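In this section we turn from sequence analysis to structure. A common task in structural bioinformatics is to predict how a protein folds when a small molecule is present, because the ligand can shape the pocket around it. The inputs are simple: the amino acid sequence and a SMILES string for the ligand, here S-adenosylmethionine. Study the lines below before reading on.
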Amino acid sequence: MAEESNGIDTTRPSVSRVYDFLLGGKDNFAIDRQVAQMVLKIAPDAPDAAFANRGFLRRVIHHLTAEAGVRQFLDIGSGLPTQGNVHEVAQAVDPEARVVYVDHDPIVLAHGRALLATNDTTTVIEADIRDPRSILDHPDTKRLIDFSRPVGLLLFSILHHINDDEDPEGLAAQFRDVLAPGSFMAISHFQNPGDAHPEAAAHAANAEILFNENLGTGRWRTKEEILAYFGDMEVLEPGLVPLAEWRAEPDAYIFSGITYHTYVGGLARKA
Ligand SMILES: C[S@@+](CC[C@H](N)C(=O)[O-])C[C@H]1O[C@@H](n2cnc3c(N)ncnc32)[C@H](O)[C@@H]1O
């Protein structure tokens, strides 16, 4: 049967499951692994890139909880549970930290619910970033997130899955607008580095075709396009940079494959 009763379609590849495979996870099917193999052919360092994204996420959450005092997170496009989930990093600093995970892929809800069955301060909801009100007005969001206080809005590797005609800039703005002063917004995103790195730019163009043919999404945007998602928030040091360069730990493993300049991240603060 193609579609299981829980809405999980095993005949079509899904972004969250391909990504899960690249991270060494087990929540993926043959069709996802086929797409992942195509990705690996043009980007053998794709797993390094995925891990660099998770490392960026971990450093951002640790900074926000341990140093900036943020205690509530809205993580949109959260993906399948893996090692170092947002609630684990945040709750290691403060067990009361609250996390709302959001994803439109039903498999995320299925696995997230199992993981979070006994965690009162963390939940996962099935919703689509293209419908911001369905996220902001969701009863679980209202229960766990107090928008009159600082929030960590997490958009890790989701906006590049929003096509240009779906207005990613407008969507980012709608979420920014509800944040209280002192809130933060973190973004990781595929980048086309242009003339600064021609080989990486050519790879980005190829990867964009491969993703769109197989997954229906995937945009490698320019640095300026990605920075626009932060609006007038202050982008903190070191700016929007390759993931491994964002406040790297001294002994961190730094990979240097073709994806290095095609995957960037940044953190901004609302004044
Ligand atoms: C590459 S994964 C990133 C997972 C995690 N945020 C990370 O950075 O490690 C992208 C996730 O975004 C989700 N996603 C894609 N489009 C979405 C949409 N329109 N609304 C909600 N989630 C979406 C996918 O299902 C997938 O789980």
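The two ends are 52 Å apart (CA to CA). As an exercise, try to locate the residues that line the S-adenosylmethionine site and compare them with your own expectations.
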